[in-house]
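FW: tagging you since you asked about this chain on Friday. Here's the raw sequence from the shared folder, copied in full. Didn't touch anything.
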Amino acid sequence: MGDPVVFKDPEIYLGGFRLTRAHNQFAMEASFQENKDERFGDQARAFYPGVMVARASGGGFFAAGAGEIDTVVAARIGSGTAWPLSCCPVGDVDGQVAYDIEVGQYSYRFGARHGESLPFTLGHTLRDGNGLVRSTIVLPRASRVGNVTGTGRQLGALSAAQKLVAVLHVFAATGGSITFTVESDDNAGFSSATTRLTFTAASGITRQVLELSGPVTDDRWRVVGTGPGVTHEAFATLAIL
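HL: got it, structure written out here
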């Protein structure tokens, strides 16, 4: 059995904004609606899983400067638009696990007594997409210049019943625009790479979620960014559902 994870260095990204430093607590949750499945002759009450209920919540200390928690979320309360929320429980590390959910913000609270540090709590509820998705980090957040090629990962082939979900957060892009694509191949060297998905070109803060339906026989996947001379900061995950 592995050692427990100490929740001290996670990363929290919402729609191209890094909100990690605003938080000191965070949680994600997925559950399934319990639909009754009672039949004559049953000796106990039975249930069958319905649709997924997915949400996230967090809290920390209020701040209102550019890129801070209040500036990012205040206008979004009840807006109805979906942004990807990504949490990296053990840090933003290439090949590590992340959890993604497309959410809206429907609750936001702050308040304190005189002289106290001002805390906030923020609630995220599933707005669109596939619920809570366990994914793999294929492009860690970092400041880069020009083209970038993420590490290829052997995530597996897609059957006709499966799909690939790709999540991209772009925190900054200056000096032009950069286009990120998802490639697949059947070998580790990506000698015959095929572009499977193309994100809209980014020239600033943006966020996108794309899906690819199977079947695809290639079993290796990566994210590539093309933008000669562009200074950018981005993060991407991939998952097969």
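FW: The chain has one helix and 14 strands.
HL: agreed, and The first helix runs from residue 69 to 73.
FW: great, closing this out.
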